[in-house]
Amino acid sequence: MILTLVICLLTFVLVTLSVLFFPKIRIGKISLSTYWIVSLLGAILLIAHGYAPFKDVWNQLTTNSSINPLKILVLFFSMTIISILLDEFGLFKYLAHLATKRAKSNQYALFFALYALTSVLTVFTSNDIVILTLTPFICFFCKRANIKAMPYLIAEFFAANTWSLMFLIGNPTNIYLATAANINFIEYFKVMAVPTLVAGLVQLGILFLLFRKALKEPFHVEDEEMEVPNKVLLSVGVSTLFVCLIFLIIVHYINLEMYMISLACALFLSLFTLVYLCATKNTLKILKDSYKRLPYELIPFFLSMFVVVVSLNHQGITGEISKLLCDSHVIYTYGYSSFLLCNLINNIPMSILYSGVSSSLSGSMFYQATYASIIGSNIGAFLTPIGALAGIMFTSLVNKQNIRFSFLDFIKYGSIVSIPTITVALLMLQLFI
Known about the structure:
Elements: H1 2-21, E1 24-27, E2 30-33, H2 34-48, H3 54-62, H4 69-88, H5 91-103, H6 107-124, H7 127-145, H8 150-160, H9 172-180, H10 185-211, H11 231-250, H12 258-279, H13 285-292, H14 298-314, H15 317-325, H16 330-345, H17 347-358, H18 363-379, H19 389-400, H20 407-432
Antiparallel strand pairs: 1-2
Helix pairs in contact: 1-2, 2-14, 4-9, 4-11, 4-12, 4-13, 5-6, 6-7, 6-8, 7-8, 7-19, 8-10, 9-17, 9-18, 10-20, 11-12, 14-17, 15-17, 16-17, 16-18, 16-20, 17-18, 18-20
């Protein structure tokens, strides 16, 4: 047990250190992120020494159950490709342009418009894709308008990692924890709708109080018209997304699994795009770029962390952790502990770990712990950049735009906003579960 725990803790620590101090390595012309390489080496070490028996790992990878990590990866990547295609079709940039145009010269209006846009896009697509898409746009727009970018960047990132709570598909951590607990799309929404709404509004109020002085100054940019690059592809893309959401809502009644629905929709949209581009004699650049943007590194990282948790289960360590967290207030013990643990080991391994930890609970306590862990996994993303891969990507994007945003800046704003946000979300969860 001790050696297993040492290898697992060392893997978590080295993943964190790699993110902070040596995030990339170059092999010739290829640049690779180190976090997944470190986690993969840890998983290989655990399997090689028998601390995570290969038979156990293989059985869980091939089992026909909701907790199968391969099904979860298919669901996540399918929804991601739909979101990326919509972005490539011009949806996100077009809506962002409309939001800034409506604000005219009023920064208050612009602030609320961009927060609302981020929230809506996150609810219906994915927090990671929204952050990757809107962050460069916000940086560019603020430079053009000669206004401070920090209020808008902070609001965008925090909104994306709060409103991602609304739907099961908003974050890979939601997908893993909810699917492992056999929670379907509509059950999830019924419980999480009010906590998300209230937490989002409280967060918006705090952000406005923080930045109200910086938003007083008017701004001016020349009004430029922007047209959707391809209305046919965009119309089909948006329609595909809504059809996918409708089927995810009713999937419990038609005896299909969620990954089947999302995969079918992603394949349809990809195939339609291919046929349309060929028929109109356009290049396949949109399709190629979309598939290049998929977060492939998440696959080895996710599966490696899955192996780490298998080893902890095999050695009985998750059971011991469960005993520490098991009391009459599981919403708060699981909610706050998952929130903090995200910022030590990242929210994906935390979610995989807590899925095993909460499995020893039963009845209402099990569901309370699951939903509380989901809240912690989302809101924990904006306490420090380590909390989620989205934080790492966000800080990298901002620094590339020559906007000063240090680790301490992240923690300063994160601690002010995240603690009241998670507290309100957990209080609402207690009332509505």
